């Protein structure tokens, strides 16, 4: 049986026309807090990490300097970017010269990657709703380029340190208390590219410290409970940043919602049954999270692909949830 609708105690304010962005954000925050009071199973256990030791926060602040969500990437010369992307032959001398000329930038990235802790506690939710891949991936490629230069120059300790920092970039995105599907995807992208670099370029001689490299490769295996945490994080991000503003009629959120149930694609202009939509969304997430916590690895694909039940929802309400859940099974 579906749970009773989760009505906001701010319900009377929902239909106010012409709401400003600030008003919509404040009302969404209030409704979000009310939901968490009524659903303690959706609460997140936050870590206490100081700002200077918080690798995620430092990476986020660094990212903000390079365009919205880091979309501009690092300011790399064309030849250096081509080399990092594998579109130009590797030239250790040219890369070493660029790294030396940009030592301050490299050392800043290195320091962020070497931080051991990460937390989203106290960070505005609006800063967490999107994670671009370009900036973290650029940072990773610069770190791995330094590792390769160091290894080829006989500085294995330096190579290990830069590689450890690259893995730290992955950890900052994937080991926060409420990772999203997007942040987890970027984390895995960084992790896999780092592992590939270790095998392709860094473990190259019999004199290598294989035990140290093996330690870097021996990451904890992802378990179903880890994916449950990703789904919990995805609930928080999707609910606070997208669903609640849309349910409140925020025009900045509604245009992104598309109804494909009819013969033609139509924009959703208003969601007529917000409480029922929210209840269906909560029921879906809690079901998946609960099942993942006790699942075997082989059961994960079937659980994560659990279809969303939109029975009884309005056409626009079902369209809103359909848009939010696109790609979630992946």
Structure description:
- The protein has 330 residues and is an all-alpha fold.
- The protein has a two-stranded antiparallel ribbon.
- It has helices spanning 21-38, 55-63, 78-84, 92-101, 103-114, 134-152, 156-174, 181-202, 210-217, 224-247, 274-293, 300-304, 315-325; strands spanning 258-259, 266-267.
- β1 and β2 (266-267) form a beta hairpin.
- α4 packs across α6, α6 runs antiparallel to α7 and α7 packs antiparallel against α8 (181-202).
Strand-helix topology:
Layout: H1 21-38, H2 55-63, H3 78-84, H4 92-101, H5 103-114, H6 134-152, H7 156-174, H8 181-202, H9 210-217, H10 224-247, E1 258-259, E2 266-267, H11 274-293, H12 300-304, H13 315-325
Helix pairs in contact: 1-10, 2-5, 4-6, 5-7, 6-7, 6-8, 7-8, 10-11, 11-13
Short précis:
With 330 residues, the protein is mostly helical.
Which characteristics define this entry?
330 residues, disordered N terminus, mainly alpha, two-stranded antiparallel sheet
Query: Tally the helices: what do you get?
Result: 13
What's the overall geometry?
A: elongated
Number of strands: 2
- Output mean pLDDT: 86
The major beta sheet can be summarized as:
2 strands, antiparallel
Whole-number radius of gyration?
A: 23 Å
| Ends distance | 27 Å
């Amino acid at each position: 049986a579906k749970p009773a609708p989760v009505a906001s105690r701010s319900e009377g304010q929902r239909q106010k026309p012409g709401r400003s962005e600030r008003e919509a954000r404040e009302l969404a925050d209030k409704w979000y807090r009310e939901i968490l009071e009524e659903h303690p199973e959706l609460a997140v256990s936050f870590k206490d990490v100081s700002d200077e030791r918080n690798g995620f926060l430092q990476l986020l602040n660094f990212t903000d300097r390079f365009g919205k969500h880091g979309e501009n990437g690092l300011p790399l010369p064309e030849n250096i970017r081509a080399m990092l992307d594998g579109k130009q032959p590797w030239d250790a001398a040219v890369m070493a010269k660029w790294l030396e000329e940009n030592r301050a930038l490299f050392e800043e990235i290195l320091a962020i990657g070497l931080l051991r802790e990460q937390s989203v506690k106290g960070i505005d939710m609006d800063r967490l709703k999107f994670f671009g891949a370009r900036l973290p991936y650029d940072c990773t490629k610069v770190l791995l380029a330094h590792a390769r230069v160091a290894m080829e120059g006989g500085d294995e300790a330096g190579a290990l340190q830069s590689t450890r920092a690259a893995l730290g970039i992955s950890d900052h995105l994937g080991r926060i208390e409420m990772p999203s599907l997007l942040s987890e995807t970027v984390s895995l992208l960084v992790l896999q590219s780092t592992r590939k670099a270790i095998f392709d370029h860094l473990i190259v001689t019999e004199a290598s410290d294989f035990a140290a490299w093996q330690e870097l490769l021996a990451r904890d295996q992802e378990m179903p409970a880890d994916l449950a945490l990703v789904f919990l994080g995805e609930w928080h991000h999707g609910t606070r940043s997208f669903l609640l503003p849309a349910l409140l009629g925020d025009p900045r959120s509604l245009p992104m919602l598309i109804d494909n149930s009819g013969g033609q694609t139509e924009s959703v202009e208003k969601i007529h049954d917000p409480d029922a939509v929210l209840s269906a969304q909560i029921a879906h997430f809690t079901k998946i999270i609960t099942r993942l916590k006790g699942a075997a690895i082989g059961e994960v694909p079937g659980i994560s692909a659990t279809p969303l039940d939109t029975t009884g929802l309005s056409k626009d309400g079902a369209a809103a949830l359909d848009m939010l859940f696109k790609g979630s099974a992946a």
